[in-house]
Amino acid sequence: MNYSPRLLLNRITSHGVDLDGNTPIIVEAFTRNGRIAYRKVSSDNSTRKTIVASCMLQRESFTRWITIPLAAPRKAIRVVSTLLDIQLPFALDKCEYSVVSVVGNRDSKSTSALVAGARHSEIASRLHLLSAAGFSPHVMDQEGIALWSQLIEEEPQVTSANVTAVLFFFASNRTTISIGQNGRFVAAHSVNSPDVSMLQRILRPYLASPTRSLMAFRSGPSALTVCTPLFLSDLCSSLQISEPQAVRDPESFLARACARRALMGDAYQLNLRSGKFQIEEHKLQASRRARHTAVVLLLAGLALCTSSAFWIWAENRRSAELQGVSRQLAESIVGNPKLAPPGQELLAAQRSIEEQKTIYAPLLAPFEPPLSDVLQRALSSALQNGANVESMTFNGISVILHGQAPDWAACERLSVALREPAWTTRLERKDAPSMASRPAFVLRMTRIP
What we know:
Order of helices and strands: EEEEEHHEEHEHEEEHEHHEHHHHEEHEE
CATH class of the largest domain: Alpha Beta
Largest sheet: 5 strands, mixed
């Protein structure tokens, strides 16, 4: 589980604890005018307002950069555990681990994830040592990552492009090396004693590029005692680097890193005191956050249901209003409310209009054009198109013209001229006598009911 300072919102200070052998080094971190400040304390006088943080040593833990052949970071995180289980020499369920950072690679086809972790036995052993010294930390950081993070905080020039930075942390029982390039953590190593040949074998692969600037720093409780001029001379000449410069107050460097990261957080945040090692307070905080999230989701769901119910009610009300207007119009057309059942107003109105056409046809007939006008217009159109009308009959529905025209195109023009909204026309070819030079036609004009 990644630790976040937001889990302990009521904390205003933090204590970083580093055990140099059996000697504790304690640094208190607090904010002053919006900036982080430190002070050494001789004993753990922490209160309920204090976060206590320590770290797993590099030799007790591990860091891995894992390359995942997926471009999407969210998808890549899901398979980290599978790939990590392949790389570790022990079962994954026997350790606590944290995905510290996920970055996309330049090829845009893969993702790299930084993972830090430690075996359960190592975590239990470290917590036992801290408990014996009188400490019960809320946060268990990782040494190599914490050192690099603090170096970035206090020496920001190491984040420049094409810069390889090496930080040596010298303690009485170990030497830890944290390496980064372009401000990005690369790796960390630990040896029991500061042997020049061993440090050379570890560092040479990271210092091979001639185009990079090399920057070296030293820190730790023994930084000023182990780093004798002879040792520094041998180390620098073998690695061809400049003499490592001491950081500010090197003795408390790791304790400052643990305190600052626990209080403020940064890009490489983690907490290996998770799972079965998680303290009860963190469990309560996580439970409260879960309940808070559940309440927020419940309220959001209730608000959504309420808005949906209101929308449905408004739509039903509007539909009922429109239905009422439609029913009134249908009843005004039908004349009898029983003939317009709900939902069938349009059908009832259409049927009523069809029935009313038949009923009112005799009354509307005087207002329609008289047949004499139709016949006169037919004869006039035939004359204009050069057609001869030989006979004209009327059967009560249709007017049938028999005749001849100069050509068939004239017959078609006559048919178009006699077509109007109240009449339809149908043109038929008639067999003419063998000696006739003009085509014969039959034109049927039918009144549209």
